[in-house]
Amino acid sequence: MPRILAPLLKPVTYARWLHLLVGTVFAGVVLMVYPGVEGGSPAHTLTTAAAADTVLLCLAALVPATRRAEGVQARLLLAPEREESIGTAPSASWADRWRTACWLVARVALGTAVGLVSVRGAMLAVDLAREPLAGARPLLAPVVLLLVGWSAVLAGRLQLRLAQALLGPSRAERLAAAELRAERLLERNRLARELHDSIGHALTVAVLQAGAAREVADPAFRDRALEVIESTGRQAMEDLERTLVLLRESPDRVAVERPGLDQVPALLATARAAGSPVEDTIEARAEHLPGVLSREAYRIVQESVTNALKYAPGVPIRVGARIAGGALELHCANGVPAEPRRRPGGKGLRGIRERAVLLGGEASTGVDGPDWVVRVRLPLRLAG
Q1: Which helix (H) or strand (E) holds 29?
Q2: Taking a C-beta distance cutoff of 8 angstroms, is the pair 306, 200 a contact?
Q3: CB contact burial 89-104 (16+ within 10 A = b; e otherwise)
Q4: At what angle do helices 140-166 and 94-129 cross, to 10 degrees?
Q5: 344: cis peptide before it, omega within 30°?
Q6: What is the three-class DSSP state of 338?
Q7: Which of 19, 244, 282, 327 could potentially form a cystine with 77 if both were Cys, beta carbons 3.0 to 4.6 Å apart?
Q8: Nearest to 173 by CA among 96, 103, 258
Q9: What is the pLDDT of residues 251-274, one digit of tens each?
Q10: pTM to 2 decimals?
Q11: Residue 62 per-residue DSSP state
């Protein structure tokens, strides 16, 4: 018995019941207006009313906003387990309009049937309850009400299935949603790489400066080291805040600017302050490059310089950037110290290669004579 009564005690049952009764109201209003309830045989009246309902519903389905309104209402009252199983986008094609028309006709037809069963069942239960108590017929009134309730439960479940089939996202909408999810995933992966590069560079500079300041007794050198640590930390905090703004997908997202090639001189200044001589030949200018290419070039140079500071501290670094042959060419070279630290092909070098490949370019890293060299070539026509 509890299993039989449980669905009748759920609020969702009555929300779906209400959704069904809206179809009864629509059919009743149309019937009152045309052909009316007076005159003519019942069969002719119902046939004429059904035809009028179908025509009006098909005309309503031609309006793109009808699909959105029906989807929102179905989500609220039919309460699907996954809201995205019922779409809320307006009709974008004739296929969407056709499915909307089928949904409207099915909704009104099923709702009208449930409305008639509910009214007639309630009337029958009242009549049975009024019978003399000496007979057994009054005991049938609760049974009739139970059957009416279960008819609403089953009809509500059927209505939900119809909504998911006819109002659910079309193939084009599902494809667009999948592409959007893929774009968001790629965006988050890109932001993760940027955060890794920025924070990794800041920590490398801070560690080197702190270690040097501890070894050197000169107060002026210590003050300068602390200034570099502070400025580098502030830049890392700004990068972190910028990344968090993008991850929140706030309205300010479009207005947020990320570092570009024009900020490479400031980056190299922190490397010099960390104790590594830097020679740069930055011939390319950020204003001559697409925005995405300028930003990715900055991150590539940043990761290259960070690796040089980490694995060859104090060793001279040479950085260059130029435009040649329709491509932006980057290189970063540093001498290999007498006792080189192990330089695994970790996330930093992998990130450089991934950035280059995504822009249609190529990257190579490794020992070339006395130097460790990073070379990257990014075509201008494939960037942006």
Answers
A1: helix 11-33
A2: yes
A3: bebeeeebbebbbbbb
A4: 180
A5: no
A6: coil
A7: 19
A8: 96
A9: 444 444 568 899 899 888 888 877
A10: 0.51
A11: T
